[in-house]
């Protein structure tokens, strides 16, 4: 009798376990598990995207820095060239006829262009 009772208890436990497993499998339980997996995947993807965006931002900043430095270099160079040109113009303007009054005066400048000197009228700052 004692053995049979024990067996019955065991069978009952087994049956309960099996029943619960069946409950989990059909319908809601299964779907819930799937949705959890999906959520996990989505969060993973979101994190990946964020990481990529951060890296992109870093790269952009680096390129921006490079571009800025290059721009500054170029502007400095351009300013230097402009000043050089101004100096040359001043020197050239003095050679022309015209009073050195600081007004814009029409001056004749001889400019060589391969075939001898060509005379050209230019308004210059003197």
Order of strands across the widest beta sheet? 1-2
Class by alpha and beta content: alpha+beta
Strand content: 5-15%
* Average pLDDT over all residues: 73
What about the largest sheet?
Answer: 2 strands, antiparallel
Helix content: over 70%
Number of domains: 2
Number of helices: 2
Low-pLDDT regions = none
* H-E string: HHEE
Number of strands: 2
Calculate the terminal CA-CA distance, rounded to whole Å. Answer: 129 Å
Give an overview of the whole structure.
- With 126 residues, the protein is of the alpha+beta class.
- It folds into two domains: 28-95; 97-126.
- The chain is 73% helix and 14% strand.
- The protein contains two helices and two strands, in the order ααββ.
- It has helices at 2-25, 28-95, and strands at 104-112, 117-125.
- A two-stranded antiparallel ribbon has the order 1-2.
- Strand 1 (104-112) and strand 2 form a beta hairpin.
- The longest helix is centred in the middle third of the chain and has 68 residues, at 28-95.
- The mean pLDDT is 73.
